[in-house]
Amino acid sequence: MIELRDVLVTAYTPDPSGGGDRVVRLLGPLSLTLAERRVAVVGANGSGKSTLARLLNGLVLPSSGTVTVDGLDTATDGAAVRRRVGFVFTDPDAQIVMPTPVEDVALSLRRLRLDDDARESRAREVLARFGLADRAQVPVHALSGGQRQLLALAAVLATDPDVLVCDEPTTLLDLRWRRHVDDLLDGLDQQVVLVTHDLEAAARADRLLVVDDGTIVHDGDPADGLARYRTLMSTDSPAGGRR
């Protein structure tokens, strides 16, 4: 179970008037307990939704308050939290580090302390599960965008995390690959927290969070939340800032 208690995230930014750094609120304060199998998060660019996602496995630490996963504090038990919570980025190139798919998945499996042969065998099994068996030794740069996103998912899921947090995993994909990845996520046994601009995917969640200006303005039924989100998008002017 993921719990956020009185969480506030701030950052320092230069004061344009020249008066030194000033504190900017990025997210919160907020308190949440996330126990549902599928939780979707939507919000405008700059709303704070990616900050929220990164809090869940310790990529971002709260400025105040606590984030815990199964009782483990992200600030003091970060390594243990990340063994439980896998994270998939928008751009798969941000997390694929090895030259071929089989090497990249095998790298993720190092924590299982398998010998080299067993690790490669397990990596190939994982790739087959994601439809990438025939791409195991193809250079990563030769894969399509959709295949690279599948590889990023495969590498994260290879170690069987309890929770998968996905930060806009289909934003860079065409419609065919987006549907493929959405279907794959829908079929996972893990709890999935999905940050997305794909409103069809968000509508299938058990619970929807709508983030606006660093605040959660809806928490509950996806249909009601998406109606609130559409209203926000029709009235707010575009603005930069938080992700």
What does this structure look like?
This protein has 243 residues and is of the alpha/beta class. The chain has a single domain, classed as 3-Layer(aba) Sandwich (Rossmann fold), CATH 3.40.50.300. It has 8 helices and 10 strands. It has helices at 49-55, 78-84, 101-108, 116-129, 145-157, 175-186, 199-203, 222-235; strands at 2-14, 21-34, 38-43, 64-69, 72-73, 85-88, 163-167, 191-195, 207-212, 215-220. Strands 6-7-8-3-9-10 form a 6-stranded mixed beta sheet, with helices on both faces. A 4-stranded antiparallel beta sheet has the order 2-1-4-5. Strand 9 and strand 10 form a beta hairpin. Helix 3 packs across helix 4 (116-129), helix 3 (101-108) packs parallel to helix 5 and helix 4 (116-129) crosses helix 5. The longest helix is centred in the middle third of the chain and has 14 residues, at 116-129. Mean pLDDT is 92; it is low at 239-243. It comes from Cellulomonas soli. This is Cobalt ABC transporter ATP-binding protein. InterPro entries: AAA+_ATPase (IPR003593), ABC_transporter-like_ATP-bd (IPR003439), ABC_transporter-like_CS (IPR017871), ABC_transpr_CbiO/EcfA_su (IPR015856), ECF_ABC_transporter_ATP-bd (IPR050095), P-loop_NTPase (IPR027417). Residues 2-238 form the ABC transporter domain. Keywords: ATP-binding, Nucleotide-binding, Transport.
